[in-house]
Design goal:
The structure is a single chain. About 45% of the residues lie in helices and about 15% in strands. Strand 1 and strand 2 form a beta hairpin. Helix 2 packs across helix 3, helix 5 crosses helix 6 and helix 10 packs antiparallel against helix 11.
């Protein structure tokens, strides 16, 4: 099946054809570091991590750029409230985002530029837009520079809106604008703002507008035309609409595909701090293992709404444990010596699901069906089918970033040693039990089984011998 994605700009699923054969350029919006990450932020990063992994599995070399917005009105406001330098607050919360990404196994981008490091590129883009007649310095001499939305006939095309139906852009005082919908490219410095939050420009000292940052950074690292632009659905308007308008008005082809992930809700309602129904990654990681949290956040189709409920992580944990239990039992059967290596496979149905606009629910259905087949084969002593299922599970979980034997998901630095020690001890007891059964010493055999069961170890007997796993 041909790799296909839903393109938000055309509102159709399109066959994917990169601009350069064998190479994919991907930009997705990262953090505005004004506070702790919430699960909507992390879900977005995870969705594009899944995309990156599948593109790599499909044979593409992928260049990923994920920005950090480290200067913004909200950052300045929050820093003033906390009585700390804005740059210190921004860096502190940037690290909180990185901690969440790392905990959930989200691959590092090829590069992660900060807005404050790209002021010259922003000045150049503004000058280009003014020269082309699509931007103008504010009429009130405030030092602001605005994009003239009515000068660009395609404005509104990404979100299919009529300009006259749009609300005014709230990013600057409208008194200096030709049209209330014009948005800020550059914001003039105002009395009372930190001296460290301004940069000199041809239009006066100030700082960049939010939308300008992404256009300048993506162009620097991926060029004026690139394959995929991604982000959360909430960014389509005004952020992505404005990005696309200013970039195309500057003569850039910009993104060939636009991909947007869905929102996260709490029991069917939009998450809101004011009503106290928000959950952040740190809280989720206190409730469940990182692998379980990753599985939960990545189990729905990326374009759908993901609804969080109190039992969500418990259900995800049960699904993860089914995979882990099979993998552990298969490893014990196939590699009794403890050393193993494998080349994972992926069933055709799994590949077809992933090629179909990253249909993760259908892909997970194939994964769990393979786990069930593997467990049936374990019980029947069918080693060939156990191996086939094991290799398929390894290949699929690798592609999804949820392989339970990956070092990313170890319980700690000593986890592997602990598991190996436990394996040696349990296998010694199983050998003693096998000897007792050979001697028809059923009392001793049952006692060993009962002692292991009391310790949380479950034994599975088959024609090929006995294997063990930890009880769920």
């Amino acid at each position: 099946m041909t790799l296909r994605f839903y393109d938000s700009a055309s509102a159709h699923v399109r066959d994917f054809a990169p601009l350069r054969e064998g190479k994919v350029s991907l930009y997705y919006c990262g953090a505005t570091v004004q506070g702790e990450p919430h699960i909507g932020h992390v879900r977005s990063a995870l969705a594009f991590d899944q995309l990156t992994r599948w593109l790599q599995v499909s044979g593409y070399g992928v260049t990923v750029i994920r920005n950090v917005t480290d200067i913004d009105d909200k950052i300045l406001l929050k820093a003033a409230e906390n009585n700390e330098p804005w740059w210190a607050l921004a860096y502190r919360f940037e690290q909180a985002f990185q901690d969440a990404y790392n905990a959930l196994g989200i691959l590092k981008p090829t590069y992660e530029p900060r807005a404050t490091g790209h002021i010259p590129e922003m000045h150049a883009l503004i000058a280009q837009l003014i020269e082309r007649g699509h931007a103008y310095p504010a009429l009130d001499e405030s030092g602001d520079v605005y994009f003239d939305v009515r000068s660009w006939k395609k404005y509104g095309s990404l979100t299919n809106q009529n300009i006259d139906d749009m609300q005014a852009a709230p990013d600057a005082d409208p008194r200096g604008k030709r049209d209330p919908r014009d948005f800020a490219l550059w914001k003039g410095f105002k009395d009372g703002e930190p001296e460290t939050a301004k940069w000199e420009s041809p239009w006066g000292a100030g700082r960049p507008g939010w939308h300008l940052e992404c256009s300048a950074m993506v162009t620097k690292y991926l060029g004026t035309e690139f394959d995929i632009h991604g982000g959360g659905l909430d960014l389509r308007f005004p952020h992505h609409e404005n990005e696309m308008a200013q970039s195309q008005a500057a003569g850039h082809g910009f993104a060939n595909y636009w991909m947007h992930n869905g929102m996260v809700t709490f029991e069917g309602e939009k998450m809101s701090k004011s009503i106290g129904n928000t959950v952040n990654p740190r809280e989720m990681l206190e409730l469940a293992r990182p692998l379980v949290v990753r599985y939960y956040l990545g189990q729905a189709h990326y374009r759908s709404v993901l609804d969080y409920r109190p039992g969500s992580l418990t259900e995800a944990a049960a699904a993860v444990e089914r995979i882990e239990t099979f993998v552990q039992a298969a490893l014990s059967r196939l590699f009794p010596g403890g050393d193993f290596g494998y080349i994972g496979t992926r069933p055709d149905a799994f590949g077809a699901a992933m090629d179909d606009d990253l249909n993760i629910p259908a892909a997970l259905a194939v994964l769990h069906e393979t786990v069930r087949a593997g467990n049936t084969a374990l019980a029947a002593g069918d080693t060939a089918t156990v191996q086939e299922s094991f290799l398929a599970v390894m290949g699929m979980t690798d592609a999804l970033g949820i392989n339970p034997v990956d070092a990313q998901w170890s319980r700690g630095q000593g986890a592997e040693a602990e598991l190996n020690a436990l394996d040696v001890l349990v296998k010694a007891r199983l050998e003693a039990r096998a000897l007792a059964r050979t001697q028809k010493n059923w009392v001793e055999s049952d006692a060993i089984r009962d002692n292991l069961s009391a310790a949380g170890v479950e034994i599975a007997d088959s024609a090929d011998g006995s294997t063990w796993s930890l009880k769920k």
